[in-house]
Amino acid sequence: MKEKIKNSAKKIVFPFITFAVAMIFSGLLLALLGYNPIKAYQFILLGTFKTTSTMGNALANSIPLMLAGLAVSIAGKAGILNLGVEGQLYIGGMLGTVCALFLPVSNRFLMLFLVLAVSMAGGMAWGGIVGVLKAKYGTNEVVVALMLNYIAILFTSYLAASPLKDPDAALNQTVRIPEHAQFRRMIPRTQITAAIFIALGVAVLIWFLFRYTTLGYKLQSIGSNPKAALANGIECRKYMILSMCLSGAVAGLVGSTEIIGKYGRFTEGFSNDIGFTGVAIAALAGYSPFAVVAVSVVFGILNAGSLTLGREMGVSSKMFMVIQGIIVLFVATPYLIEVFAGRRKMKKAKGDENECE
Amino acid sequence: MRMMIDFIFLAVNLAVPLVLAAEAAMIAERAGVICLGVEGMMIFGAFFAVAGCYFTESPWIGLLLAILCGIAAGLVYGLFTVILRGQQVVVGVAINFFAAGITPMITQQIWGREGASETVKSMPELDLSGIFGGNAGLSWFVPITAAIVAGMWFFIYKTKYGLRLRMTGDFPLGLQTCGVNTNQYKLGAMVVCGILSAIGGAYLSIGYGNLFVTDMVAGRGYMGVAANIFGGWTPLGGALAAVFFAVVQTLRYSLTSLNLPSQLMQMLPYLATLIALVLFARNSKSPEGLGKL
């Protein structure tokens, strides 16, 4: 019992320490590059909490990050690192846009439902490829997912550049989708839309899935101990594919909610590495859905703040990527954080293999 | 004939970074470390080669700086994976994030813009136009790369240390019982991996081109990792696989007469990598201790 409390306390405290250490390191880097880190962090906070509109936009920024983080954590619970969210969200976004542009549906709710459903199906198929290849041929899911990312991004930008291009636009983008296929702004002068309820709904569903259903239990067991799962008659391969499909479906939602909520059209390169940020968020949140929600709000603030930072101090917005890199690095090496937290005991680390033979 | 020669020269030039990335991934994975950080270390190499070249006006010093940086990156990578026992896949991804983020930041600091550096002097070329005519130039990196592949083969299969390195990846416990420190071999392999990746990146920025551009590595590190798997974790196999990917990349430039959309042509190498992974990866055998500690 005591051990259990200790473990859960560790689970809550560690992400905070990781985040703090990452921010200190990024601050040091900023100082090395000749910026004033304290001033930089001040700008991030002040820029966010200045008005309701900036606060709203930071929150709106966190919606796609939330969904991306949830997508990564579904696969993560089953022991698969889904780096393909970026590609899956482009496929989902493109399919959703095509749906909104060409389906002759005038009912608003039916239209929105169809757009979201089709984009989920697209992401599901694209994520499923990774799962099938890993389960059937044992190919490395990271390399496959990254190759699929490039293919998805290039293919959708081809579609946005030639067959579906808006002839009046300079950028490679489609024409605006009809008004009834778009979310309405819930608070004026912010980008918060109904997408936030979708994100929260998905978080609750995932929590329910892993907490109360056998499917969730099976998915989790192939992640935590594939050999034991196999010995207990859980078909590893099947659930591996399923977890990637579910993860891809949520990733597809990222694309369509961004388009029908924020941009109103598919623009080449609209995502700006949301999928990869999702990896950092899920890793820091330890794949727990509600923690993902909390962490994405923080990341939304950082993301909005890094833009302010660019305007005010000339710091490249890639700063955000650096912070993510440091966070992921520290999350991957729990031993290091234990050293920082003053618990120097060397433990036998678990290998990160997951075989299903 | 002329077209044929141009095609071969372009393919050879495009093969250099992929071959180096494949060799880098090979040595790390033969020592039992899953190595996805090749991409990030290539970005570092590309950046520091240009930085060194910009400040000293000598591409050779740029290359040297890239190599030094590769050693440092390999040591850090090894520290996190081997000594601190981090999850190898995730650490590799983190290094790639970090490299992709920090290099544009420094670029902005030095040159005042985020996307690209100023142009610098690139490495001299071996002038072969006397033999082949036209503008047939080969970078100095080509013979260096060929020598590296040959050296790698000799090291892995013909020396005592190569045997131990292979054993480190396959069955570290067995080697430890013989009184050999396997962590030393893993760390050494990571340093070599860093050096090779950095040279590959440096080739992109000061060999093939003459400036650093964000995203210039464009997944070549991952392609190298795939080529290594495709080539069955062997030095020569990985190099051949990398050359195959390079030929596919070359097609993109020589099929311009077909008038296919550029985005679709850019997709080709990624698609080829994917297909090669699916068709051939299951027949080859990975080092048995890969990813274990």
> End-to-end distance of chain B, in Å?
53 Å
Largest chain interface and its two residue counts? A-B, 51 and 49 residues
Question: Any guess at the CATH architecture of chain B?
Answer: Orthogonal Bundle
- Give the CATH class of chain A: Mainly Alpha
DSSP strand count of chain B? 2
* Number of separate structural domains of chain A: 1
Indicate the proportion of strand residues of chain A. under 5%
**Number of beta strands of chain A:** 0
CATH architecture of chain A: Orthogonal Bundle
Q: Strand content of the residues of chain B, in percent?
A: under 5%
Give the overall average pLDDT of chain A: 86
Average pLDDT taken over every residue of chain B: 87
- Domain count of chain B: the total is 1
Overall geometric form of chain A: globular
Task: Give a brief outline of the structure.
Chain A is an all-alpha fold and 357 residues long. Chain A has 14 helices and no strands. Chain B is mostly helical.
What would you note in describing this structure?
The complex is a heterodimer of chains A (357) and B (293). With 357 residues, chain A is mainly α. Chain A has a single domain, classed as ABC transporter involved in vitamin B12 uptake, BtuC, CATH 1.10.3470. Helix content of chain A is 72%, strand content 0%. Chain A contains 14 helices and no strands. In chain A, helix 2 (37-48) packs across helix 12 (289-313), helix 5 (108-137) packs antiparallel against helix 10 (236-263) and helix 11 (274-284) packs parallel to helix 13. The model of chain A is unreliable at 346-357 (pLDDT under 50). Chain B is an all-alpha fold and 293 residues long. Chain B has one domain (14-121, 139-280): ABC transporter involved in vitamin B12 uptake, BtuC, CATH 1.10.3470.10. Helices cover 73% and strands 2% of the residues of chain B. Chain B has twelve helices and two strands, in the order ααααβαβααααααα. A two-stranded antiparallel sheet of chain B has the order 1-2. The N and C termini of chain B lie far apart (53 Å). The interface between A and B is large, with 51 and 49 residues.
